[in-house]
Structure formats: C-alpha cells, structure tokens
UniProtKB/TrEMBL annotation:
<feature type="domain" description="JmjC">
    <location>
        <begin position="93"/>
        <end position="221"/>
    </location>
</feature>
<dbReference type="Pfam" id="PF08007">
    <property type="entry name" value="JmjC_2"/>
</dbReference>
<dbReference type="GO" id="GO:0016706">
    <property type="term" value="F:2-oxoglutarate-dependent dioxygenase activity"/>
</dbReference>
<dbReference type="InterPro" id="IPR003347">
    <property type="entry name" value="JmjC_dom"/>
</dbReference>
<keyword id="KW-0408">Iron</keyword>
<dbReference type="InterPro" id="IPR039994">
    <property type="entry name" value="NO66-like"/>
</dbReference>
<protein>
    <submittedName>
        <fullName>Cupin domain-containing protein</fullName>
    </submittedName>
</protein>
<dbReference type="GO" id="GO:0046872">
    <property type="term" value="F:metal ion binding"/>
</dbReference>
<keyword id="KW-0479">Metal-binding</keyword>
Length: 380
C-alpha cells in the first residue's frame, strides 16, 4: 500500500501543527478486515474492545460497554460504535496499514485501532493526546476537526472523555473509502457515521514527561551504574536546617541531569521505546544458531516482524528490541540493519543471503527467540 501525498510538505506544514485531509490517500482502498471479523475479534477474551452508544434515554446521553461480547443485537441498528484496540497485533493484514507511515520513527508508532459504526454512530467530540491518521474504509463518515485549542473535558460515561461546548471546525467534510484524515494531538474532533462504516486509526505514541520518568526510574533501579548516592559536601555551618536553599536545589538538579545525560540513560531509553505495547509471543522451543540456515532454506519460507515489534538501532553496535539490548558485531551489522528495515513479509531467502557466519545466525536466532521476528511456511 502506498500513501499518495507529499511527505516533505506534510512534515513541514502539518505534522504536529494542524490537521489535514488527504483525499484518496489510498486509491482503490480495500478493507483488510470485515465488520463480521472485527465483531468476532471483540468476542475474544484478550481483545481490548468496547461499544459506545449515544442514547437519548440516559441522563448523560452516552453508554459504554466493555467486551468481550457474546452478541450485538441489544445495541440495535444505529447510534453505536464498536472499537477494538491493537487489531494489528491480531490480524497481520491490518498491520500492513502501518507500513505507509514508516517515514515517521518506528518507536513512535503505537497501534491500529479499528472501529465499526452503525448509522449515526460515533464517540462524541473529544481530544486525543497523540497524533493519529484515520483511514476511512467501507461506508462514509462526517468529520469535524478543529485546530489545537484548550477545551474543558468531561466524562459523560465511564471510560469516555469528551469536550464541552462547541469548537470551530477547520475541516468539515464527508470521508469516503481511501480518504485519510490527520489529526494532531490536542485538536478537537468529532466523527459521525452516515452509513455503516469502518475506520482505521493509526496512532502514535506521545509519552508525557511523567510517564517517561516513571518508566526510566523503574528500569534504572536495576542498573548498578545508577546507584550512586547524592552527596552534599559543600554544606556550611551557617546553613539553616529547615530551609531548602537554592544551591541545594541546584545540586539535586545537577545530580539528576548528570544521570539523564549519561550514555547509560541513552541505552535505557532505547530499551523503553523498543518495548511493544503488549508482550510478544515467544516460540515454544528456542531456536539455535545452528538451526537458522536450514530454517531459512525451507521452500516457501517467509520472514516477518511480529505485529507491534520494533528492532531499533542506537549505534553501530547496539540494537534494541522487545525491551532488550542486542550487541551486534561489525560482521552481523548488515543482518541487523536488514531486520530493522524489515516491513511486511519477505521471502526467507532474502535473509538467508545475509546469514553467512555464526555471528549472523546467532543474531537471527536471538530475534526469533525474543518474538521480534518469526518464520512461517506458506502453503503452495
């Protein structure tokens, strides 16, 4: 799939600045999932799903029901939406929707949420704290999107946040299959289905400072090099014991700044951003380096990165995936870079050309064992 638009113009004028509508960004768009398959997925215990209804007979006008679902008849034929998170981790075909957006950093890509809306279905006007591309699938939807602004939020039902009051729309359009809507974080928006519709939301991670500090603190507790204790040898006898002085605050900030600017923190941040949203499925039996050449040589064998997996390069010798560090020798560097750039499914023979040594085979085996990539046989 190719996204038909000027990426440089988009990054310069729209990315994290203002919303835009890309008409027929995907020409001749074909839905990678049907409403029936999505509804079936929402019946699975592990799927994160919910139905949002707009109801005139409730005090707030809204109702949220969480899955897994057994049936959908009770929701009627209009005014409700089924949303399922991280569908790309369940259905590889949906994961293919991420590929056209890989001109943005891999670690920023979060997941693909898929929604099915009956006529007049929607979730109400709201803000997202992350950037999102919304791909219109089957059906059509009326979207209103405003520029970034400060708006009061409310919660008309459990697990449903909306904005209060009206917002001025800079985009007020009907979307048809293949149209793509980009909405930066903090821009109010509201979409209402004009007929039964599918939508695909490719979301991007936007961790807050607090979230990153919390994750960094948790992982830093395991690092011996960051266990150094704070010291204050410059205390004078005239210092007031009950007063936190500016020089003491400066010393504490400097102590933290020194830790944040260390090479060790670079590595910890790489481990954090390489983590998948959900645990990656690991193989039942570990793969050894000795097995790799024969595995890659199997007829009709294909290699693919697991849905939600990342394999990120930090330096010439350091790669990160699934929250783990991979020490890569110069000999195995071309293999590691090929794995990092891997998009979609590729014949295993393409990787086989890059596995000619023990070091290269060990790297492939390790990424398989970590669940980052997997090998499968396509039946002829």
């Amino acid at each position: 799939m190719k996204l038909a638009f000027d990426k440089d113009d988009f990054l310069k004028n729209y990315w994290q600045k203002k919303p835009c509508l890309i008409r027929q960004g995907f020409a001749d768009f074909t839905d990678p999932v049907s409403p029936e398959i999505l509804a079936g997925l929402a019946m699975e215990e592990g799927a994160d799903s919910r139905v949002i209804e707009s109801q005139t007979d409730t005090e707030s006008g809204w109702l949220v029901t969480h899955g897994p679902f057994e049936e959908y008849e009770q929701f009627g034929e209009s005014h409700w939406t089924l949303l399922v998170q991280s569908v790309n981790e369940w259905l590889p075909d949906v994961g293919e929707l991420i590929t056209p957006f890989r001109f943005l950093p891999d670690w920023r890509i979060d997941d693909v949420m898929v929604s099915f809306s009956c006529e007049n279905g929607g979730v109400g006007p709201h803000l997202d704290q992350y950037d999102v591309f919304i791909i219109q699938g089957a059906g059509s939807r009326h979207w209103r999107v405003g520029e970034r602004q400060s708006m009061r939020e409310c919660q008309p039902a459990a697990d449903l946040c909306q904005v209060e009051g009206e917002f001025k729309a800079v985009i007020d359009e009907h979307l048809k299959a293949g149209d793509v809507l980009y909405i930066p974080a903090g821009c109010p928006h509201d979409g209402v289905a004009l007929e039964p519709s599918l939508n695909y939301s490719v979301g991007f991670r936007a961790p807050s400072k607090a979230e990153l500090l919390l994750q960094l603190g948790d992982i830093a507790m395991q690092q011996e090099s960051l266990q150094e204790r704070y010291q204050d040898p410059e205390i004078g006898s005239d210092d007031t014991s009950w007063e936190i002085e500016e020089k003491q605050l400066a010393a504490l900030k400097g102590f933290l700044k020194e830790a944040l600017e260390s090479d060790e923190t670079d590595r910890l941040l790489a481990r954090i951003v390489s983590q998948s949203k959900r645990p990656l499925p690991e193989p039942e039996l570990p793969t050894t380096a000795a097995q790799v050449p024969d595995l890659l040589a199997q007829p009709n064998a294909f290699i693919e990165k697991a849905s939600g997996a990342r394999f990120l390069k930090l330096s010439q010798t350091e790669f990160y995936g699934n929250g783990e560090a991979f020490a890569v020798s110069p000999e195995a560097l071309p293999t590691a870079e090929w794995l990092g750039q891997l998009q979609g499914s590729k014949p295993a023979s393409e990787l086989s050309k890059r596995v000619n040594s023990t070091a290269q085979a060990e790297l492939v085996a390790e990424t398989i064992n970590q669940g980052i990539i997997y090998l499968y046989i396509e039946e002829s």
